[in-house]
Structure formats: C-alpha cells, structure tokens
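Exercise 7b. Backbone tokens:
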C-alpha cells in the first residue's frame, strides 16, 4: 500500500524548496519525482482535505514547486471537484451501539447478577 493522501501533501511541502532549485543536473530527477507525485495526487484528489487542497493549489500556481508538471492542469481540475462527503466520513461512535460494528473479545464472559 502506498503513502496516505496526507503524507503525499506533506511530502510536497517538505520537498518544495528542493523542487524549486535550478540545478541543471538535478532537473531530470526532479521532474521524474514531480510527475510521480502529481500522478498520485490526481488519483487521490477527492480524498484530500480542503486544507491540503489549498496547499497544493499554492504549489501549482506560478512559481510553485509543482508548476512544471505535465499533470498540472489535470491536478488543478481534480482539486476543483467537490469531494463526496460520504467518502470522508468515518464510523460514528454511535455505530458501535447500533450494531453496525461489532467488537468481540475472545474469552470474555458476561457475569450474571443473581
């Protein structure tokens, strides 16, 4: 399993200064990394939080770390789509009591009151 959506965004933030350097010999490696990161982000854009989306939009703007990506337009379009709220929700604590999620303890027995 690959990195989580939030880990990918944190990676972009951490690498932004490096990705913006103009060292000629590092360009090919940098572009390969940018393309792979952007491919992952396009695939997972709907799963990103609004905060992560805002960070990425900044890195896709002129002068940003991801501006040279061939996937820039595709990623901007993916970030503009509204995420499905159902996709972002985790089970509520009440679901445990409503029988939607069952947790079993191995070897645990209920004590009866007499």
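Sequence design result:
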């Amino acid at each position: 399993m690959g990195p989580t959506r939030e880990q990918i965004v944190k990676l972009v933030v951490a690498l932004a200064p490096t990705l913006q350097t103009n060292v000629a010999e590092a360009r090919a490696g940098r572009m390969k990394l940018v393309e792979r990161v952007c491919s992952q982000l396009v695939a997972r854009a709907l799963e990103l939080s609004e905060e992560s989306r805002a960070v990425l939009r900044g890195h896709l703007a002129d002068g940003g770390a991801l501006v040279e990506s061939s996937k820039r337009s595709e990623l901007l379009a993916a970030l503009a789509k509204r995420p499905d709220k159902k996709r972002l929700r985790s089970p509520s604590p009440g679901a445990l009591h409503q029988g939607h999620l069952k947790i079993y303890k191995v070897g645990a027995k209920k004590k009866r009151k007499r």
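Instructor comment: The first helix runs from residue 5 to 19. The CA atoms of residues 45 and 85 lie 13 Å apart.
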